[in-house]
Amino acid sequence: MISEAVVYACTCDLAGKVRGKGFPAADLEKRLKRGIGWAPTNTQITCFDLIADTPFGALGDRVLIPDPGTRVSLRSEEQGIAEDFVLGDILNLDGSPWAMCTRSILKAALERLHRVTGLRLLSAFEHEFQFTSNPTGMGNAYTLQGLSSRRLFAERLIGAMRAVGLAPDTIMKEYAPEQLEVTMDPAEGVTSADHAVILRQLIYSIARACDETVTFTPLRVPGGVGNGVHIHFSLLDESGGPAVFDPNARYRLSEVAGQFIAGILKYLDSVLALTAPSVVSYARLTPHRWSAAFNNLGLQDREAAVRICPVSAMSDIEPARQYNIEFRAGDASASPYLHLAAIVHAGVQGIEEGLAPPEATEEDLALLSSEELAGRGYIRLPTSLPDALARFAENATVHGWFAPEFAELYRKHKEGEMRFLEGMDEDEVHRAYASVY
Fold it and tell me: Is domain 6-91 classified as CATH 3.10.20.70?
């Protein structure tokens, strides 16, 4: 049978879904210049493939220009793997970034960070996901047996990551049934989010080749253990040196890093709709679930929204380069580009406002009354997607980080997503998200 290689030019959209259009691989050089046509209304396709309210209708055109540095070409007939795609930016016809292109939005946030501070972002996404096929039973949390039961998947995934330029760090059997966690080395700027998108696609592909199915849904079943996406980050100066660590400062946190974190915490309730944007996200973001429920900084606290990670005296890496911060209030229903852009914009806002570095909590904030929380500058984060969207809509400062039309279109997108779920009971809602993520 005659066949010809096809490359897919892709974007990771508002729903965190990777959508694109294929073309003959022989035309790649042409497409790097011409791109592929893209309909503006595509931005309003929800995770359930329902088109939300759109001002574009059938009108208008944009162009998706592939970035050759993001190409993934991975083929193995023996293993049943065939992936060939490239990520890119959606541009207006005059070549300017389109307001709804998530990758362009992140680039703008990173440019703001560098313009205001001269600093660059170094970050890494860690992913949790669950197998929905071939259950292995109870008693496997964190066990060698639990990981060994999917050794074929794990070893193929690590090999695939390395083959496409991702540096694998760890893979482990996590706490929830059939749950794994995969981490990778950090990367600078937009590349970190590119790697997050690529890793998710590799996990889907390798699982399919192993006759498995997986889901990244924030919460697979009501009352279950959720799947988060945690982002570890630090800041680099112009020479590439670490700019977060100060051995003489409180918590060893540099002033600029403290202001950056303070900005994240101040604006967290208003950007949560971007970092945890599904209905089931908010069943996970509750106290005592090792997720985030309040806008607090914690010392090695896995229930804090932002965590100062440990530094080991036994490491061969110097403390200043080990030292990093973890953002925990997000999941894989978010586009990695929007997820990271929200963090960067909020952090830079904190620097611009000269916010005082925050105090780090070392207690259970869920035990405090709302009055006690308020007296110490803490708030309970939104408890539902409508609540999160309302706080996003009300914050003019946050809107100012994006193009004028972004906030309204994003709100309509999410309202369209929620319309699909109307009339469903709790179990059906969870199953719907598990099927699409």
Answer: yes
